[in-house]
Amino acid sequence: MDLPPDFAPTLAAVADPPPYLLTRPARQTVPLVFASPHSGRLYPPEFVAAARLDPVALRKSEDGFVDELFAAAPDSGAPLLAATFPRVFCDVNREPWELDPNMFDGPLPAWVNTASPRVGAGLGTIARVVATGEPVYRHKLTFAEAEDRIRRYWQPYHAALAALIAETRAEFGYCLLIDCHSMPTHPAQAASPPDFVLGDAHGTACAPRATRLAEEALLQMGYRVRRNDPYAGGYVTRHYGRPRERVHALQIEVARPLYMDELRIERLPGMARLVSDLTRLIRQLAEADWTILR
User: Fold this and answer.
1) Going by C-beta distance under 8 Å and a sequence separation of 6 or more, which residues neighbour residue 235?
2) Is pLDDT of 6 > 90?
3) How far apart are CA 220 and CA 234, in angstroms?
4) Which residue(s) pair with 225 in the sheet?
5) What pLDDT is recorded for position 4?
6) Using 50, 70 and 90 to split pLDDT, how confident is the model at 50?
7) Strands, DSSP E only, in 109-183?
8) Could you give the CA distance from residue 222 to residue 132 in angstroms, rounded to a whole number?
9) Phi-psi region of 202 (alpha: psi -120 to 50; beta: other; left: phi over 0)
């Protein structure tokens, strides 16, 4: 299904949209899988109606346009998976059942994870607040609403991602997942903000050489790069990154000021250069010798 490249939540009432878009190369020629879990921009109208925030405030939790930044992956022989639904609606970079009991109008099942640090921060699978800390909803939700989102959105996205990883490992003997994100401006880093943060769960989610190769490529382009600070990798990186099973995961966080207006959620002229550089990064990753991942 073709979707418009840009739209506001109030205009995103698409009838029964797919939970993700999967763009495959004509033939997968590299052991790489790219995924963009937080760039979805299809806001269900009933969700927008239930929210106490305006559309722009809702969109501030998006990893805006990250699917476009990494759109060249299929041209280099790797599939690209992108969620279509927004992170604030259902976050696939969380466990499936990380829920804040204070958001719901009744008790939650005993097996729900209500005590994680993410839940405590209001950023569970169903977020209580947006990235700026403002509450999302006018009223409390029912558990049935959360369950419906998880079953209709979270589970299909992860089923597709797991299938891509399994296919890639079966074909090549190993797989490197590149989990693509963007990061907001952080006041504590104002003096020397990084352009990229590479997260490999402190060396446990992927081979050190994979992180080093991406780091060196970005440094050669003139970017400031950090590892695991302040983003070491979320659920996706830690869940799928299992080097002993020949599956590696590397999270890439891109600084939003490089390419977008964070207040208006609009592309900036610098996006063209960044897309060009990331296309070069993708090409370098595709041309690398990944037999080290065995």
Assistant:
1) 92, 93, 94, 95
2) no
3) 27
4) 196
5) 42
6) very high
7) 175-183
8) 30
9) left
